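[job 4471] stage=fold_predict status=RUNNING
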Amino acid sequence: MPHLTAIDWAIWLLVIVAQLAFVGLSLRMKRAWREWPAVFSFVAFKAFVSLALVSIMLSDPGTGDLYPAIYFYTYWISSALAAILEVWIVTEIGCRVAPPAGRVLDKAIPTLAAIFLIGSLFVSDSSPVTFTLELTRLVVSLDRAAALAWLASFVSLWYASEFLGIRWDRVQIGVAIGFTVHSIGDTAVAWLLGTLPRKWDVLSNAQSFFWIGAMVAWSLTFLRLESPPAPPLDLQRLGDSAKTYIDALKTLRTKR
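[job 4471] inference complete, writing structure tokens
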């Protein structure tokens, strides 16, 4: 279980506050979370997991291995479930931009993750270790593979849309930007942890800021989705107003 400094705690609490604020904002805007349930479910799940991990850390008496084990399995099981929700987000974006692409992504993302996982395990250290360390290495490799697969899938979807001439609306672009920011942070941190394991705290804090940036992008997108559309410009009324103004000026000049 990680040992957090005051700065680490402050950043983690900031992330939790941002997550809860996004969930509350989404619940107030029914249209937003109904039209994009994947994004809402993903952030709500991450907020629940963050609260659970904080509770485990605060409840740890500091003796024995029970609480660290609970923390470890909660973290990695929740990471696996979050990866499933990430697949849902990418698929949802694909189905909205181009329905055939969404169906392809359903099969492409797990395939890419498996390929990257095999590659990660192949190039990693294969020296004999205990079961716990081996399990940790496996899960870290899976995390790297998943993050890279999501990012590769999104980039492929974007370039395919450009090639096919498919235009994204502003809401789709906003959701995609938020997911891209999150994926870049996850990918960078997951791969840097393998080379800089002692910088876990710095990398984790950097990942938190990427995550906050993603939630800001999604919040602004949901606000735009919920805001009523601007009324169409009434050219007839505008012309009548201009004519009235011109007539008033002519009358004023005549009186002079």
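[job 4471] summary: Residues 123-131 have pLDDT under 50 and may be disordered.
[job 4471] exit 0
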